[in-house]
Design a protein that fits this description.
The complex is a heterodimer of chains A (124) and B (695).
Chain A (H helix, E strand, L loop, with lengths): L5 E5 L3 H13 L3 E5 L2 H6 L6 E7 L7 H10 L6 E5 L4 H9 L4 E4 L4 H15 L1
Parallel strand pairs in A: 1-2, 1-3, 3-4, 4-5
Chain B lengths: L1 H7 L19 H14 L8 E3 L2 H14 L5 E6 L1 H4 L8 E5 L4 H11 L5 E6 L3 H12 L2 H4 L3 E6 L3 H8 L6 E5 L13 H11 L4 E2 L12 E5 L1 H16 L10 E2 L3 E6 H6 L12 E3 L5 H4 L1 H48 L3 E5 L5 E4 L1 H7 L3 H4 L4 H4 L5 H12 L5 E9 L5 E12 L6 E9 L1 H56 L5 H31 L4 E4 L1 H18 L3 E6 L6 E4 H19 L8 E9 L3 E8 L27 H11 L3 E6 L5 E8 L2 H4 L1
Parallel strand pairs in B: 1-2, 2-3, 3-9, 4-5, 4-6, 6-7, 10-11, 18-20
Antiparallel strand pairs in B: 8-10, 12-13, 12-16, 14-15, 15-16, 17-19, 20-21, 21-23, 22-23
Helix pairs in contact in B: 1-10, 2-3, 8-9, 18-19, 18-20, 19-22, 20-21, 21-22
């Protein structure tokens, strides 16, 4: 049986991290959480990740830095940004760099689903 | 002399006067005939005394005394001293003689001719001549330094006259006496001096009164008058019975300077050179003296005419000058008006242009004819009209003498221009209708530059807003959105677990546990904010609320101007101070002002006016109101606007007024809102006055 796609979640806020993981899992995907961009980049799950959900504002490397870091390494992971403080400029930047979604918190279930469908559909 | 005799005589005297014309009848036969005539004439009238009035008369009387009146006493006057003192003088002959003072005569000459350098002393060669010359030489020394002195002594008569005719003008000739010349011929000095003075090319002076009237300028000499008086006194004494032999001839002491006015004229000697107390004889009566009244009347008439003519001329000149000045002034003002780079327009009471200058016409892209009759409202950009009308009303009703505005106008070609205008009201005295003078400066260029910098400023203002109120709301948003986001996501997940064909209750329970926790967390965030505001991080200080309002207006200035909003501040200057957190209160007032600006953003049907008022409310409170003329707040939502997250703005987050009210409450005050009349909203910030100050 082909295992469910792995969704990696990066957010410094534990509530968000956990609730997002819950939602992703309730949708039938595997979920792995990381408290920071550095933690994710240092993990062995980068290659397995089918889709990345990351916060934008984080201490240390932020979501945009993480996206750029992955591109620099030649790793292409469909990425969904979530933020408590949406900014048009950041959104544009992220979307240009190939993001599949940019969601303000609180986001609706449907908007996340749509983004996940886009992300996973494009990858296979 | 006659006068003196009549005055002083105790009894009445019969005085007879005879004139001897000896100069014209000089021969011995003439003299004899005269002598016999006189003897015949007075044969029947025995004479008591004879007076000889000059040297010639004396000489004649002495010579023919035996014929005319033997033994009658003779008193002579003006006799030559040598005759008077002669040893063979008859006993009953006495009188007054005059002595010469040649040195004082030189002094007179020197005063009359201050430029003279040569002095010529003329004297005869007879014994008497030598005597007078000697007395002159003893006193000549003081003059030796001032003059080149020449003595012409005993020259032959003809030589004397010949040499005298070649004298330079700066010469003084002093004639003493010439009784005999170098050839031994006898002369009468008075006749010699007459010939000399006629021939001489320089003024001649002499010390004897007998020379006066014979061509000399003058001299120091006895006067006929004083000698006449002296002689009259002698005559009266003799008549009173005094023996003439006991009365020795006396020298006249009354000598003075005398001059001949005709000679002064001849030699052009100015009268100002004449020493004081000089007796001037032979003065020509002037026209003035002869016809004094006529001259006076004539001069008066001429003067009167001259004055009238002068007055007319002066008046004419003055009028011409005034006219010229007026014309120049008018030209000057006309050229100031025309050449001015500032636009100038005159408008009537209804603000209709009556005259405009070139700069004004250029500014608005219209000719003077096109502008005539238009009002500034016709030129104004649409959105400015309402506020321009308000300004008009102010000056039209006389509430203000003038106004100043920076507004947009439309040129004929449709281009918008910014014009800085000063309009002042002038009272036209004649018509009583007010006139308006407008000066206008095109500030479009400046405005453009300002707008460019304002965009930068506006960015800056936005940043500033973010870093204070904005940053606060941003961070609040983030803090609240995190748990909210978690709650929503968690809820969705929980629902999912329950919606599965085989509901996973464990997973769902975990979700709902997290949701409860996140709800508590959100509540804590809100409590934290409230606590922070109530405590106030900033220090509270005593300050003047008006100063704070003005600071806010400075912050908001660019925004206000950019949006074309007129600010009316009515600040009561007699307010107690308030004890507040300056930054927080600034945020409140700034927020109210920015809200007001936003409320008027879409306004075009009426002026955008923001009113700020500060006043007292009883003794304990003071109130700041911010009133806009905007769209107002719908009645249905007015109760909600202070609630958190309530907003009517597209991009608002609905925290501003909520926080403002929290700040007001934290200061022991209140923030409320009501509808403005007839439109707009009124925000009312009430603060407790500092009790120490309020008392």
């Amino acid at each position: 049986m082909r295992s469910a796609p792995l969704i990696s979640i990066v957010d410094d806020d534990e509530s968000i991290r956990e609730s997002t993981r819950g939602l992703v899992r309730s949708l039938g995907y595997q979920a792995e959480t990381f408290a920071s961009a550095e933690e994710f980049l240092g993990s062995d799950r980068v290659g397995d990740t089918s889709c990345l959900i990351t916060d934008v504002q984080m201490p240390g490397l932020n979501g945009i830095d993480l996206q750029r870091g992955l591109i620099d390494r030649g790793v292409q992971i469909p990425t969904i940004f979530i933020t408590a403080f949406p900014e048009e400029r950041t959104r544009l930047h992220a979307m240009k760099a190939g993001a599949v979604g940019y969601l303000g918190k609180p986001f609706t279930e449907e908007s996340l689903l749509k983004c996940l469908d886009t992300a996973l559909g494009s990858s296979g | 002399m006659r006068k003196r005799l009549v005055e002083k005589s105790p009894s009445k005297l019969d005085i007879y006067t005879d004139f001897l014309d000896l100069a014209r009848f000089p021969t011995e036969a003439d003299e004899l005939r005269s002598a016999h005539h006189l003897a015949d004439k007075y044969a029947s009238k025995p004479l008591d005394l004879i007076v000889a009035l000059n040297s010639e008369a004396e000489h004649f009387l002495l010579k023919y005394r035996s014929i005319i009146a033997p033994n009658v006493p003779i008193v002579f006057c003006c006799a030559r001293p040598e005759v008077a003192m002669a040893a063979d003088r008859p006993a009953n002959v006495t009188g007054v003689f005059s002595e010469f003072d040649a040195n004082k005569t030189i002094a007179l000459a020197q005063q009359l001719q201050p430029d003279a350098r040569n002095l010529i002393i003329v004297s005869g060669s007879s014994e008497i001549d030598q005597g007078w010359l000697k007395s002159l030489r003893t006193g000549i020394e003081p003059y030796e330094h001032s003059f080149n002195i020449e003595y012409w002594v005993g020259l032959p008569y003809e030589t004397l006259l010949e040499r005298a005719s070649h004298l330079s003008r700066d010469t003084i000739v002093i004639f003493i006496t010439v009784y005999g010349d170098g050839t031994g011929r006898p002369f009468v000095p008075a006749l010699v001096v007459e010939a000399l003075a006629t021939a001489a090319s320089a003024p001649v002076y002499g010390p004897s009164d007998t020379y006066l009237g014979r061509g000399i300028v003058g001299g120091h000499m006895s006067s006929f008058e004083s000698m006449g008086a002296d002689a009259a006194d002698m005559a009266l004494e003799i008549l009173a019975g005094r023996d003439p032999a006991m009365l020795a001839p006396r020298s006249s002491e009354n000598r003075k300077f005398q001059v001949d006015a005709r000679q002064l004229l001849r030699w052009h000697i100015p009268e100002r050179n004449i020493p004081k107390s000089t007796l001037v004889s032979f003065r020509q009566p002037t026209i003035w003296e002869e016809h004094r009244n006529l001259v006076l009347a004539t001069i008066f008439v001429i003067l009167l005419q001259a004055i009238m003519i002068t007055a007319l001329l002066v008046q004419m000149l003055a009028r011409r000058r005034a006219e010229k000045w007026l014309r120049e002034s008018e030209e000057r003002w006309r050229s100031v008006f025309e050449m001015s780079t500032v636009g100038i327009a005159l408008a009537d009471r209804n603000f209709r242009f009556q005259a405009t200058n070139t700069a004004f016409q250029k500014m608005f892209g219209r000719t003077d004819e096109q502008l005539h009759g238009l009002t500034p409202l016709d030129l104004s950009a649409e959105e400015e009209r309402e506020s321009l009308k308000l300004l008009f009303e102010q000056v039209h009703e006389g509430k203000q003498q003038s106004y100043e505005s920076v507004q947009r106008y439309k040129r004929k070609d449709g281009a918008l221009i910014w014009v800085h205008a000063y309009v002042s009201r002038m009272q036209d005295n004649e018509s009583e209708a007010p006139l308006f003078l407008a000066t206008a400066i095109d500030v479009t260029g400046r405005k453009r530059a300002e707008a460019a910098s304002r965009d930068a400023l506006s960015d800056l203002a936005r940043v500033t807003r973010l870093t204070t109120m904005g940053e606060m709301t941003a961070s609040i948003a983030h803090e609240i959105n995190q748990p909210l986001g978690a709650i929503v996501t968690g809820g969705s997940a929980g629902l999912r677990w329950l919606a599965n064909a085989k509901p996973d209750l464990e997973e769902a329970r975990a979700c709902f546990r997290r949701i409860v926790n996140d709800g508590h967390r959100a509540s804590q965030v809100i409590n934290g904010i409230r606590t922070m505001l109530v405590k106030g991080d900033g220090e509270r200080e005593l300050l003047d609320i008006n100063g704070l309002v003005r600071e806010v207006l400075v912050f908001a200035h660019a925004e206000l101007e950019n949006k074309g909003i007129m600010v009316r501040a009515e600040l009561n200057e007699n307010l107690p101070e308030v004890l507040v957190d300056r930054i927080q209160l600034q945020q409140v007032v700034l927020n109210l002002v920015l809200n007001g600006i936003d409320a008027m953003a879409a306004l075009s049907s009426r002026p955008r006016v923001l009113k700020l008022r500060s006043e007292r409310n009883g003794s304990a409170n003071l109130i700041v109101t911010v009133e806009d003329s905007g769209t107002g707040i719908d009645r249905s939502i007015i109760s909600q606007i202070f609630e958190a997250f309530f907003t009517t703005k597209r991009h608002g987050i609905g925290m501003g007024l909520s926080i403002c009210r929290s700040i007001a409450v934290a200061h022991g005050g209140q923030l409320s809102v009501s509808s403005g009349y007839p439109y707009g909203s009124v925000f009312r910030l009430e603060l407790p006055a500092n009790q120490l100050n309020a008392a």
